[in-house]
Amino acid sequence: MPTASLEAMLELWSRSLRDVKHQIRPLFAAPSVARSAGAFLDGLLGAERRKTGWMRAEAAGDPGPWRQQAVLGRSQWDADALRDIVREHVVETLAEPDAVLVLDETGFLKQGKSSCGVHRQYTGSAGKITNCQIGVFAAYVSIKGHAFLDRALYLPKAWTDDPRRRAATHVPEKLAFATKPQLALTMIRRAIAADVPFAWVAADSVYGVGEIEMALRREAKGYVLGVAASHRFNSWIDKPDVAGTAEAIADALDPGAWQRLSAGRGTKGERLYDWAYCELADLEVSKKTDGRSELWTRGLLVRRSISDGQRAYFTTWCPAGTSLHTLVQVEGRRWAIEEAFETGKTELGLDHNETRSWHGWHRHVSLVMLAFAVLARVRQRANGPPPKTERTAKLTRALVAPGDPAGRDPARAAAH
User: Per its UniProt record, what Pfam families does this chain match (predicted)?
Assistant: First the structure.
């Protein structure tokens, strides 16, 4: 492998880290805390499989974990300001006008009852009701890559209604109970207010109906949102007569209505399913920019597994004439956030937070989001002309995905 190629990759890593450390420096009043935050970021991106305070401290050459712990706990800095820096970094790296904002949640398994938001609740991470925290996330997904854009810790009513627990974990006084869809809607509005370029929102059935649908329609944003089999749909004037639950409508579809399409590549190749799409209504939508009207279509998208026939249902909203292939691709990008959770937990210590406070959780998670954004930038900038040899390709992948002995892209770690 030519020496220049290796030097270029190392310089890309070095420059990317220098840039983000310079960006976050104003968040910290004391230079020593800024240095510790930089060392924290180095530790998250390092080869250690566990990202505990002791291991990060050892990697930084500190005699103990207190400097690392101070970044999350005792120091005074704004995790939301870091979130905004992450957003700017992600947009600068991955921005595309037809990008998809993906909403989902993940669980953080915990022992005891003291960590902020911990409660016996269902999490897909464990596949059962268990003692855990739940974080709601937004990811930005484009043809250039994907990265986390926003986050919020979900607080059950057992926490928001308990002044003692709130005080012990420093929950902000004005914070009221919010459902997971409400947290997600706040993230959507935050992205729109920051002029983040995206055309679509994708999410599973937790976020599929209600306020999110109405808000996206008002903003002329397309969506592919999961709904339950029992969700009712009705067609309007000038569309084929359709009425009933999503399941009943799918049962009545003609065999010729189904098309086999890929929702994108996974670790085992193309994710092939059978798909059907029913247009339900065409509606005039006024553009906020110039007041002109556009025709948009509300519809029902159905996905059917080839192996076992299991179906999933999605309510859709898109410009009139949008193809089934486009809707399938939007829904397929939803899996990127699952891959991001896997990478965040296995490579970057997303679930290795040792603090118990509200601000500690958001600081830790925001730093992990920044580390992921660095990975996304290095990966995107490294994806220029293809390497000339397989040996070069393997080393390039290893540099882009440190800590993975096979040199695989860590964002492909989750099988579907």
Answer: DDE_5 (PF13546)
